[in-house]
Write a structure and sequence with these properties.
Layout (H helix, E strand, L loop, with lengths): L11 H11 L1 H7 L3 H12 L4 H8 L3 H19 L9 H8 L3
Helix pairs in contact: 1-2, 2-5, 3-4, 3-5, 4-5, 5-6
Length: about 100
Amino acid sequence: MAAAEPETVVSAEDQVLAGLEHGRLGQALAGLSPELRGALEATVLDGLTCAEAAVLLGVPKGTVKSRCHRARAALRAALAGQQAGPGTTAYHQEAWGTP
């Protein structure tokens, strides 16, 4: 008798990361500028502090904070199906950080 193959269990983290690549969030992330995406990936996915991300990205800590803020606003707009262009509420929120 052959030994049974061990069951492969996919971690919750791997499931989320796969969803990032292929789901709506992945598409929204791909639509961000490299600067915004890099700041968000460093702080959210890699778990770095803004200070650590600043060193990694070679920019001031305040720049990381503002890029993350703009990236989150753009992601909210994209996932809500809004276009964040000039003259839209989503653009105003993204550009000025207002609700």
